[in-house]
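Exam prep: given the inputs below (a chain plus 4'-deoxy-4'-aminopyridoxal-5'-phosphate), describe the expected output before reading on.
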Amino acid sequence: NTTAPATRALIERRRNTFGDGVPLFYRDPVHFVSASGVWLRDRDGLEYLDAYNNVPSVGHCHPHVVEAVSKQAATLNTHTRYLSDVVTSYAERLLGTFPRGLSKVLFTSSGTESVDLAMRLARLYTGGSGFIVTRFAYHGHSTAVAEITPAFGPGVPIGINVRLVDAPDGYRQDAPVGIKFAQDVAAAIADMERHGIKFAGLILDTVCSSDGLFVDPPGFLQDVVATVKRAGGVFVADEVQPGFGRTGEGMWGFERHRILPDIVVMGKPMGNGMPIAATVTTADIMQAFTDRSGYFNTFGGNTVCCAAASAVLDVIESEGLISNAKETGAHLKRGLEQLKAQHQSIGDIRAIGLYAAVEFVQPGTKNGDTEMALDVVNELRRRRVLISTCGPQGNILKIRPPLQFSSENCDTLVTAIDEILRIR
Ligand code: PMP
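Solution:
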């Protein structure tokens, strides 16, 4: 065991206080004490390249965000039932990033709460209760949202009103993904209705992060959105992962598919680490909700979090982070494609902006190689580069760095993976 005694002691204290249900990353867990930009520092002062974290999306401890938070925290922070120019101005600015029909927003403190709220909106608007999600989706951890989160595995049952469909996986299926996905959703709607369940909506991470990152071809979600709307349901775009510029093609992942969601959920990168998330929808859907229910959330969209979120939008604009995601992402994808050409263990590369997946398989097959992915992640950690895995088998490298990532950072990562695969 190479873990330092002080780190082992902290792991033990953590286990004593939290129990065993909150796993740490890595066989040799890492203990960070500070960070800036795309670098984190551990307790020994060693620097790690961050190729994984999408919460500090505009860079760790970005000075502009830190200043906005500090100033607002020193000025005013209350619950959310007083007038606030900071909060209202941010809401207006955020809505300005959406197509015109999406004109109403409610703030929360987490992606889970925002998905939960989206489910309430969808139920009230459609009168239905049935939801469809992809087979290994992650949408959150509350009681209601865990029922639409099959990624928790068999220990957390999905709801009786929930149907699972295969993710639009263009690597493992031959049929055109958009058509097959729409057909599967239509079949799930029909199955629900046979069981007396009225369809409420399809909830989809628009890049299918948890299922393994499926992004191509652009436009493949058009058929499924039409199917959902024809059946009287709503399309809920979960933008917690792709949102705020990660795809390099605009602010939101759904834009790649030229579709108009009825409800959009966002979180993670929204406040660069401050807890703020949101549910955005149309005036009609919001009306169906407010006709029957008020909304109050003590912390959701407080002044400090809105100041942080507004500063995040400033940085995305002033540092051109969406075009950086596009250009640097293209460089990363090229580097990974070259790796694939040299290593038979890599079955597929999928990438959009600064979000990339490297799928490990047993050479000559499409059978996932989970052990390989785990080894690469842990060996990269040893070389002080952070990434993780995704997909139902955990055989897919998940590369999702802060949006300030540079071409040089990409080369460091790709070279490290190459070296690991050569010596393995
Ligand atoms: N939706 C997606 C797609 C997510 O990835 C997550 C978090 N992993 C959530 C929702 C839930 O967000 P939170 O952890 O902020 O509750």
